[in-house]
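User: Hand in any protein.

Assistant:
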Amino acid sequence: MLASSLPVEPLTVPVRIGVIADTHLNAPNRWMRPEVLAALEDCDMIFHVGDINREWVLERLREIAPVHAVVGNNDDEELQATLPVARLFKAGEHRIGLIHGHAPHTRKRQTAIQVTLEYLRGQVDCAIYGHSHKPEDSIRDGLRMVNPGSATWPRWERQPSYAIINIAENIDVRIVRF
């Protein structure tokens, strides 16, 4: 299993995390809406769970807060070479995992939910993933699964979205649609 071999990165609690995914930003003249950027400015850090597309997106986000990211299936060669497929964090008593949700190392056709469960179930308390562009905060097979949706390209959803996660004694998730 992929996640069991990953290093665990510590996070100091309490922590407020802005979570985005599937931004699909290719050109600097296209950027995130002001309300998303304002929400991210109130965060201690940003998680981007893939389909960033270009490094300049992460550079701009780092001007707001520290960024932890994983690679998505639409990311360019530079991001494919530098970002991990998954990341693990420990925040207090909570184990958090990040993954985009595509299956890069297999030919199996799987949904983002299936990939996330396969890679992170039993390894973390909360799995944060993307790929589907569908916001979610639910429990599946005993695993809390959070998908922020897409802040720039909602595809099958009516509205763009992102998530704010506060971690202290509990993990509090708020999906924000705008």
The mean pLDDT is 92. The first strand starts at residue 8 and ends at 11.
